[in-house]
Specification:
Blueprint (H helix, E strand, L loop, with lengths): L1 H9 L3 H16 L1 H6 L1 H12 L17 H4 L6 H7 L4 H19 L1 H12 L3 H12 L6 H11 L6 H8 L11 H29 L3 H9 L4 H26 L6 H7 L5 H4 L2 H11 L3 H29 L6
Helix pairs in contact: 6-18, 7-12, 8-12, 9-12, 12-14, 13-14, 14-18, 17-18
Length: 320
Amino acid sequence: MDSMIENAGAAPVPGRKKRSDGLLRKMAKRYDLYLMLLPPLAFYLIFHYGPLYGLQIAFKNFNPAKGIIGSPWEGFGHFERFFNSYYFWRLLWNTVSINLFSLLIAFPVPILLALLVNEIKSRAYSKWLQNITYIPHFISVVVIVGILNVFLSPKTGPVNQLIEAFGGTPINFLQEAAWFKPIFIGSNIWQSMGWQSIIYIAALSGVNPQLYEAAKMDGASRLRRIWHVSLPGIMPVIVILLILDIGHFMNIGFEKILLMQNNLNLESSDVISTFVYTTGILKGEYSYTAAIGLFNSVINLMLLLLVNRFARKTSETSLW
């Protein structure tokens, strides 16, 4: 009796086998499409998932001569050192404040630009506006910082010359900590708003034109049509992009900050990513900065999970 039960439990499920055979046949039929997935799959495996093995150095006193396995364990000592350091709150506040202000100020700008482009009736002017706003995206970060240095120069910059023309005193914008965040966020908006608006413009093109006609026949003004037709039409795209932005909330492209950073504005410009670079790469404290980077990534993951869950409960749009 027991042997019969074991044989019955080991019997394959016919439906499951048929499904797997059907999937294999479909993959074999369109093998060329699946082969195209190999390069991006290899990229993510090698450069994103492979390095996860090295995260253990955050809990070790890493010695390059001994390697990852041979280095002694430290436990949570590097995390405690970072949390108890005098610069912890400064790094955390600068990172959070720059990203928070960018989210509140910069995130809506591409949406407004897409709505503006969508409402322009002249196709030629619409294309001109799109091209003008796209161009800054293709300018190198080094060139952008060079432009800021030229335009905001206290002696020869046109901004300070305009201030002097109105009787004001020249301001050394890039040397004052109070001006760092507005300049950084404002230049990011100018550089990226056109490129980021592309996906919203594409989403607006998919809104049913009959909805605009019906709203117009009901006497809705242009602003009412934007509010009740355009925005609801692209709201799923807005929610998805908002979740993705919050998913890397603690990450700031340190290249631009590093180029704009100096000893005078360090109070406002020193963020976690630049600290990891200067301390980990330049000073060789690999384990310490690996712990800081892991802390940063954990916060991003928690924010992503919380925001995605909130979006799933309040709307029908979420990443999963």
